[in-house]
Design brief:
The complex is a heterodimer. By secondary structure, chain A is an alpha/beta fold. Helices cover 54% and strands 12% of the residues of chain A. Chain A folds into three domains: 159 residues, Rossmann fold (3-Layer(aba) Sandwich); 48 residues, no CATH class; 89 residues. A five-stranded parallel sheet of chain A has the order 2-5-8-1-9, with helices on both faces. By secondary structure, chain B is an alpha/beta fold. Classes of the chains: A alpha/beta, B alpha/beta.
Chain lengths: 313, 499
């Protein structure tokens, strides 16, 4: 714990530690984590796909040496999958096995009312902790030393699920009808929510979170990211390929390449032992960075002018 | 200090960033944590807490830069003034202030300052004659105590308190209500008066005419500081104008555009209209998206429950309830895109397709003489491009409602069922052709609702070649629709009826 506080004592220290874990971040991102830690608030991260939203949560858990609990959202996700479920099979099995024991308990009981009375004396055994299957959200609350909870792609879940999250996000607690309210242990989890903006997140949810928008990085930052992730790439090639990607982002494409694609491409070029961006080579490896045939065709026609421009720069 | 923050949030709200009280509290906690010292840090932090979409972040950035720039400048000025006060060498900074004050539009207090400056500069040329007598003579040394409130405040040299006093005075004269730039001088004057300018002026002139040197020295010093203050007030009013009036000017324009006839909208306002349309659409979406699913709980769905609990040996663990899901509206929009109605069609299509989150099943048709389905165009292109294409391809030819209705019957009468809402936008001016109202009757019988929107005002319906009476008979609802307000009401009703 002391360690975490030391890391999170200032924005600069956070930034430095992120870099040690090969996650190069801007001031805004580091500030977000800083505030999230000190204000105990969840962060809602938005931005185009592939800019490192999920990676931020992963790196944070690595950096703080906390377990990462991840909840992947999808349409139809409900509380049975997100919070808890009863172990039906186990309940059933136990009633079968314990049938005789039950008979003993009930032995000598006269009439229905008396039997039920006897059963009541044993309490709600079958709806107790032992028969509870905790799902990610409940698990996160029960981590004693705190954890990083990643709720990924919240925009894919239904509206109703968002409302379900409100309690855990603002008070770090969950109400289970049969057991009562489960409150977070000493250390509440650090919560990261990511969204690809396929739909508007409700105001109620946004209100409870810090809102971090991660855009595509500028040339300088992206070069540093490539340097951290694929250090083997030579400086000249790194400059060229990042420049190339930035040129592509200005074009009218169906899906512009993100950071993750830049990294993949850098690895590809490394594998092919390239030193400079040759038009022919770029043409052959375009499918690494562009994911639509239409885009590839569009770019191919302008390939020569782009590569020439980059090599001149 | 919290006041600064709430003022900032107020100006954000003016710029249409939605901030709830809870977020204000968050912002205060944030400020407690990071403090006001580091500007970029403060900006980054508040950017996380207050704006909650990418658009809002941009607005936030400009607002922040505008709002917090003032503090820096005034800090410098205060320092300068303090230094000048100590050096007490040349009267030029004060003179500058006087000039500014004069041009700021406050005649009475401004004139003496300006006049004085003229005198000074005149006398400066002949070897600082009288000036020396007036200023240098007194030199640094003792001053008498100021008597009026404002003078005391000025002499304490406390920037914070002065700013507070200024803000209070501004509050008292409602400077936030400032609307147009010509009011700037007026408000600056009012604020100065509120802060006690009259007393100060009286004191200064008394002091300057009095005999003892310390008193005159104080008079000089007070005059300099008064001029400095005037400049500050002017800056303050300017800032308030930028923060409050600029945006409310836009608001005013938006209000106007909402009610203006769509055919009269000038081309340069299209962008703004489009923004308004999206904003309205968003409001409707948030109002209605929650109601998409209404579950009627309390009725056990026995077959489903039994089926799901088979694996538990018939023991009923997992209960299933009957639920009713209400369908989203299925909308057919038929738009007349001939010259006279084209503009209305443009905005209606824009509106309908902005709503695709709550109304995914919009099919649209365009006609002037022949009718064609344009749904595909909208699916493939951006809304604006699609509209431009529709207007280009289909707007030629003379209007023929009869033919359009026949075409509709041929193409998709089979798809019309009792959940369909058909919206027809047109002026029903049929060039005296065959109306084919019987087709509309068929649509009327088969569909859930037929809504006819006519951009003409009710008075001109049924005049000339308008066939509104015939068509109106076979519509569930007939409405005049020629402004964004009307459009919003119609679509809002549409959404309400289905959910």
């Amino acid at each position: 714990m002391a360690n975490i506080e030391r890391i999170a004592e200032s924005v600069d220290s956070l930034k430095q530690h992120f870099e040690e874990h090969r996650y190069i971040c801007s001031d805004q991102i580091a500030t977000a984590v800083y505030l999230a830690f000190h204000l105990r608030k969840p962060i809602l991260i938005e931005g185009p796909p592939g800019v490192g939203k999920t990676e931020l949560a992963k790196t944070t858990s690595e950096m703080f040496a906390l377990p990462l609990i991840r909840l992947q959202c999808y349409e139809g996700l409900d509380e049975a999958k997100a919070i808890y479920e009863w172990k039906y099979g186990k309940q059933l099995l136990y009633t079968q096995v314990l049938k005789e024991a039950l008979d003993e308990v009930l032995a000598g009981a006269k009439g229905f009312a008396q039997s039920v009375q006897r059963l009541h004396e044993f309490g709600d055994i079958f709806f107790s902790e032992e028969f509870l299957e905790p799902r990610p959200l409940l698990k996160a609350l029960r981590e004693d030393d705190g954890c990083v909870l990643l709720i990924d792609e919240i925009d894919k879940a239904d509206h109703e699920f968002e409302s379900l999250l409100l309690e855990i996000l603002s008070d770090f607690q969950i109400s289970i009808p049969e057991i009562g309210t489960v409150k977070a242990s000493k250390e509440p989890p650090m919560v990261f929510l990511t969204s690809n903006n396929t739909r508007e997140i409700s105001d109620a949810l946004k209100r409870r979170c810090l809102h971090l928008y991660i855009p595509f990085p500028d040339v300088d930052l992206e070069q540093r990211i490539i340097h951290a992730r694929v250090p083997e790439v030579s400086e000249e090639l790194r400059r060229q390929l990042v420049q190339f990607i930035h040129e592509l982002r200005d074009l009218d494409l169906k899906k512009v390449p993100a950071i993750s694609e830049t990294i993949d491409w850098a690895r590809t070029l490394l594998l092919l032992h390239t030193e400079t961006l040759e038009p022919q080579l770029v043409k052959d490896t375009l499918n690494v960075i562009l994911k639509f045939q239409e885009d590839i065709e569009n770019v191919e026609s302008e390939l020569n002018s782009i590569t020439a421009k980059i090599r001149k720069a | 200090m919290d006041r600064t923050l709430t003022n900032f949030i107020r100006s954000l709200r003016m710029a249409e960033v939605r901030i709830s009280p809870a977020e204000t509290l968050d912002a205060m906690h944030t400020v407690e944590l990071v403090g006001y010292k580091d500007r970029t840090m403060l900006k980054d932090s508040l950017a996380l807490v207050l704006p909650k979409t990418a658009d809002e972040k941009e607005t936030f950035n400009t607002c922040f830069d505008e709002f917090f720039s003032f503090e820096d400048v005034s800090g410098e000025r205060a320092e300068n003034a303090a230094q000048d006060g100590e050096a007490s060498e040349d009267g030029d900074p004060a003179g500058d202030g006087g000039e500014g004050g004069g041009s700021g539009g406050e005649r009475q207090p401004g004139q003496p300052a300006a006049g004085n400056r003229k005198k000074k500069s005149k006398r400066k040329k002949p070897n600082n004659n009288l000036l020396e007598e007036e200023e240098e003579d007194l030199g640094p040394g003792e001053m008498t105590q100021p008597s009026s409130e404002l003078a005391k405040l000025l002499m304490t040299n406390s920037k914070v308190e002065l700013t507070m006093a200024m803000a209070n005075a501004g509050e008292a004269v409602n400077v936030r209500d400032i609307q147009i730039f010509t009011q700037k001088g007026l408000y600056a004057r009012r604020i100065m008066d509120e802060m006690g300018l009259a007393d100060l002026n009286q004191e200064i002139s008394n002091l300057r005419e009095s005999g003892p040197v310390p008193a005159r020295r104080l008079g000089q010093e007070l005059k300099r500081r008064r001029d400095w203050l005037r400049e500050q007030v002017r800056d303050y009013v300017e800032r308030q104008f930028l923060l409050n009036a600029d945006v409310s000017g836009k608001k005013l324009r938006e209000e106007l555009l909402r009610t203006v006839k769509l055919s009269n909208v000038e081309h340069r306002n299209f962008r703004l209209i489009q923004e308004i349309v999206f904003k309205m659409a968003k409001k409707l979406i948030t109002m209605h998206s929650r109601r998409k699913k209404v579950f009627k709980r309390g009725m056990l769905n026995v077959p489903r429950t039994l089926r799901h609990n088979m694996s538990y040996d018939g023991n009923i663990f997992d209960l299933h309830w009957k639920s009713v899901k209400i369908d989203r509206p299925k909308v057919f929009a038929i738009c007349d895109v001939s010259g006279s109605v084209a503009n209305y069609a443009r905005f209606m299509l824009m509106f309908l397709y902005s709503l695709d989150e709550v109304m995914p099943k919009v099919r649209s048709f365009a006609f002037s003489s022949d009718l064609a389905e344009v749904t595909e165009l909208f699916n493939r292109n951006k809304i604006e491009d699609a509209i431009a294409k529709v207007l280009r391809d289909y707007s030629g030819g003379s209007t023929d409602y009869g033919q359009a209705l026949l075409d509709f019957k041929k193409q998709c009468m089979d798809d019309v069922d009792n959940r369909t809402t058909i919206i027809i936008l047109g002026d029903a001016r049929n060039n005296y052709g065959e109306t084919h109202a019987e087709v509309l009757k068929e649509m009327y019988d088969k569909s859930k609702r037929v809504i006819w929107l006519n951009p003409e005002s009710r008075n001109s319906w049924n005049t000339g070649d308008s066939e509104m009476r015939k068509y109106g008979a076979y519509s569930h609802q007939v409405d005049e629709c020629n402004s964004l307000m009307h459009l919003e009401r119609v679509v809002g009703n549409l959404l309400r009826q289905v959910s």
